[in-house]
Amino acid sequence: MPTTFLDKIKATIKKHNMLQKHDRILVGVSGGPDSVTLLHILCELRKEYSLNITIAHLDHKFRGDESEGDRRFCEGLAKKYNIEIVWEEIDVPKISKEKGLSPEETARFERYDFFKRIALEKGIDKIAVGHTRDDQAETVLMRIMRGTGMKGLGGMSPVKEISGNKIIRPLIEVSRKDVEDFISESGLKFRTDSSNEKAIFTRNKIRMELIPLLEKDFNPNIKEVLGNMAENLQIENDFLSRYAKRKFKSVSKIRQGQILIDSKKFKKLPEALRKRVLRVGLEELKGDLRRLTYQHWKEMEELIDARPVNSIVDLPAGISIIKDRANIILKLIKS
Questions:
Q1: pLDDT tens track of the chain, all 335 residues?
Q2: Distance from C-alpha of 20 to C-alpha of 62, rounded to nearest angstrom
Q3: Helix axis angle, 33-44 relative to 65-81, nearest 10°?
Q4: Could you give the residue ranges of the DSSP H alpha helices within the chain?
Q5: DSSP class of residue 148?
Q6: What is the pTM of this model?
Q7: How many Å apart are CA 73 and CA 90, to the nearest integer?
Q8: How many CB atoms lie within 10 A of CB 331?
Q9: Around 162, how many Cα atoms within 13 Å sit in the side-chain half-sphere?
């Protein structure tokens, strides 16, 4: 019996334990084909799982009247499916200039901050986003070009904990073509984002130029290969992350808002674990690892292995790492 598109999504949901009965789900909907498909599928599953669904739509102020049209379209979807919608406008180009970040990076940070804030306000613990296997391949290639480790090569996790919320990606194992075919067969309407056709953003250039080149000259199945690689590395990374958290507890203690890592115990750890233990400590202190570069990690290594006692390395977001006679001290400096 042929597997339907819905069957594929249900298999992904079951495989990664994405949904439980009576879940409250915040669905990120831009109005594009992926998010419209995601919303439609979750509404199809609403009765089976007794879901409570809310749409979240963010206008990034990139495209003027076109963006306003997206918002009105999403409001129409809310009426169609008889569900609540929450929307906001955020001037991403302005914030991007103020923070010195790329528009892509700023949009992603602001979007997830918006999702988390609305989820907190409404007591929602799961946020669904419409990334596909194609998005996964693009993400892996972006991270390779920027420089990354095993975690980065694992791409986007099907389920990820962020600040008390679970991000779920029910479409992560289907292709963009699968989505397009489903849209066509189902007669679903969607909005087209004109900025997706401009090769000015890194992800667009990868999608429009690099991946077609790789498919043509190297491997026609490159997107599937990258997706499979990411899935395998996620499994290994999850195991190592859990192991590193246990080791972190055995070599560290928290005192007066500081994290003290015993230097002798830390240096006895295998080299592959040391960076992971530091990652755990920094995430415990800061909540995330945004803006930490390879150079920052090299400075931390040099501090621990070669610099004299009382040396300090200052990291982004007001974090300092101090080396005393017995400990590596992670400290958040309040501004």
A1: 358 999 999 999 999 999 999 999 999 999 999 999 999 999 999 999 999 999 999 987 766 678 889 999 999 999 999 999 999 988 887 888 887 777 788 888 889 999 999 999 999 989 999 999 999 999 999 999 988 889 899 999 999 988 788 999 999 999 999 999 999 999 999 998 766 666 667 888 999 999 999 999 999 999 999 999 999 999 999 999 999 999 999 999 988 879 999 999 999 999 889 999 999 998 888 776 767 788 888 999 999 999 999 999 998 878 899 999 999 999 987 65
A2: 36
A3: 10
A4: 5-15, 33-44, 46-49, 65-81, 92-99, 103-122, 133-146, 150-153, 176-186, 202-205, 211-217, 222-251, 263-268, 271-286, 294-305
A5: -
A6: 0.88
A7: 18
A8: 17
A9: 23
Place of tokens 């129409």: 76
Task: Supply 161's token pair.
Answer: 């904990």
Amino acid letter, 248:
F
Residue type, 199: A
